[in-house]
Write a structure and sequence with these properties.
There is one protein chain. This protein has seven helices and no strands. The chain is mainly α and 149 residues long. The protein is globular. The protein starts with a helix and ends with a helix.
Length: 149
């Protein structure tokens, strides 16, 4: 990510923070609309706690954009955990689409091409780091293991 992209992500995140509860509700509503097959992954999840975890992960990412040596291992661990929950690589596309839509709703006129590019760069960094860790041998359960769980 460029320094300018990092600055845009940080500045626009500060505009989302005051409406974070609404934004996270919009995000999950949109995610399940885009990709209904994800809903079963959340059947036994406390959604209130899950929403807080999402906000914490986003805040952590934004705060550590200049400290990738700290951020990358945290994202890798998150990716391994998500693989264990049954998250597949293609699900990251749905999450990205829901995130961009949510940011656009929350930022209004502050959502523009430059902002979209900055958030795309940030999300790509996050998603690729998580997927890479999840796809490491032994980290992604087989379909049989997921079905048995």
């Amino acid at each position: 990510m460029t320094p300018n992209e990092k600055n845009i992500v940080r500045a626009t995140w500060q505009k989302i923070v005051p409406i974070a509860d609404t934004a996270v509700d919009l995000f999950y509503d949109k995610l399940f609309e885009i990709d209904p097959e994800l809903r079963p992954l959340f059947e036994n999840v406390d959604m209130g706690a899950q929403k807080k975890k999402l906000l914490q992960a986003l805040a952590m990412t934004v705060a550590q954009l200049d400290a990738l040596e700290v951020l990358a291992p945290q994202l890798a661990e998150l990716g391994r955990r998500h693989a264990a929950y049954g998250v597949q690589n293609e699900h990251y596309d749905s999450v990205g689409a829901a995130l961009w839509w949510t940011l656009e709703q929350g930022l209004g006129d502050d959502w523009n091409t430059e902002t979209a590019q900055a958030w795309t760069a940030a999300y790509t960094l996050v998603a690729e780091t998580m997927k890479s860790a999840a796809n490491t041998d032994g980290n992604r359960p087989s379909n049989a293991q997921r079905t048995a769980a």
